[in-house]
Amino acid sequence: MTKRVPPRTTVVVVGAGHSGLAVSQRLGAEGIDHVMLERGEVAHSWRTQRWDSLRLLTPGWMNRLPGLPEPVLGPADDDEFLTAAQVASLVTGYADTISAPVHENVGVERVSPTDDGYLVETSTGPWSAENVVLATGSVRGVTPALAADLPPGLPSVHAIDYRRPSQLPPGGVLVVGAAASGVQIAAELQASGRQVTLAVGEHVRAPRRYRGRDIFAWIDAAGVLDERWDEVEDVVRARRLSSFQLVGGTETLDLNTLQEAGVRVVGKLAGLREGTALFSGSLTNMAALADLKLNRLLNTIDETVGGTGERPEPTRVPAPVLSASLTSGEIRSVVWATGIKPDHSFLDADVFDHKGAIRHDGGVTGPAGLYVTGLPVLRRRRSTYIDGARADSADLVSHLTRRLADPTRRTAG
């Protein structure tokens, strides 16, 4: 039997979200042939891994993507924030506009180096390519190992699988994690009539509005978003830092507003023992650290643009609660808002660090022709948001174009 020769292309882009599509637009503009492989539909994670009420943390003017006319894609009003469904529609429309060569419902099963590039094995057959761009984003919910010690029968769900309060059984809820996802879900569950206990570790506090403008307008004006990855003092830590404690809109959502709504705030979940949740006594320190970083951010803004604004009230720290029963009926479910990570388990190459993350230098990995995009602080702090795809895709495709123009270039194998 004759062995089938895989179809050959110059670049395979894995993932058809906004980051992958931005790369596709740049590749098309350079006349570089490529295909995009998407495990579901375009914008799959925005369709399947977000709760119903979610809105982007970033305002409409930060929805810019390459190849589209300015000033913005999406709402022109600075104070409008897209829902997940609107983002999915936006990204799908973008794919149509740029005629991206997307192959939907194709699961990538293995990417491995060969003598002339990479073999990309998929659910519908293999592809051969000299270059591969991984644009899958963060799609895997991270649940701490201690979750295995939950009492049998106690329902739990990760934030990427949470949709709405009615998904959970009646009664109190323990929400673990106080970044954007955790505080938003905690607020929604408390408003639904449940008693929420929020376990708080290290977090990044920010006001929604400052000196009459959205906080992102100030952060952008101060140049913070354009700080390059190779200028950040500790880029590894920056890439792992939790998201701003924000919600899309005009209202601030922090530990003070949550406590005013009735949420019980406790320290970081430190362990589960014999049906009891044990909380750290570090809440005072965590709150003080968040307040310190908040004031440092506002000081940076003031020093850059001039003038000063009012500082938010320091976080109010309640009397410590060091444990809670998970078997008495007080808490009847758990939501893990403990972060998301990429899933590059299909990649068969020596590129992972000891924590399983891809080693890269601004999206350029060690093996020739292998790139990654769509990750926090990839090439600048702006990379964390949709808006970062414009500059990141330009930089990576420029690198790839220079590589293709070099007749002495190495291949992955």
Automatic annotation (TrEMBL):
GO MF annotation terms: flavin adenine dinucleotide binding; monooxygenase activity
Tree of life domain: Bacteria
Pfam families found in the cross-reference section: Pyr_redox_3 (PF13738)
Alphabetic keyword roster: Oxidoreductase
PANTHER family xrefs: FLAVIN-BINDING MONOOXYGENASE-LIKE PROTEIN (AFU_ORTHOLOGUE AFUA_4G09220), FLAVIN-CONTAINING MONOOXYGENASE
Protein known as: Putative flavoprotein involved in K+ transport
Record organism: Nocardioides albertanoniae
